[in-house]
Amino acid sequence: MSEPTTESHEPIPSFRGLSAVWLALLGATALTVWASTVDLGRANAWIALAIASGKSSLVLAFFMRLRHESRTILLMFVAAVVTLALFIGLTFVDVSFR
Fold first, then answer.
1. Hey, how many other C-beta atoms are within 10 angstroms of the C-beta on 31?
2. CA 54 to centroid of chain Cα atoms
3. Half-sphere CA count of 45, side-chain side, radius 13 A
4. In sequence order, which residues have a C-beta less than 8 Å from that of residue 46 and are 6 or more positions away?
């Protein structure tokens, strides 16, 4: 009988690359804390969402290895994010015109 193979064809991320992403996440967290102290009116929520989107994109791309997936998986992910962004945007528009 043949032995089952556990060989993966995905590239192994380097420690240096993952450390750079981690430092970027720490920087984005510091930016989030700083942005919360500045009063920009209604733009505060949009800025916080933009920073959070960037941080989640880093986590998905590097730590969850989404950047190595097939185009179909990436297309489904982009469709889900666009739908979520649309719902959040429409909610902000609805609340601002009340």
1. 14
2. 5
3. 9
4. 92
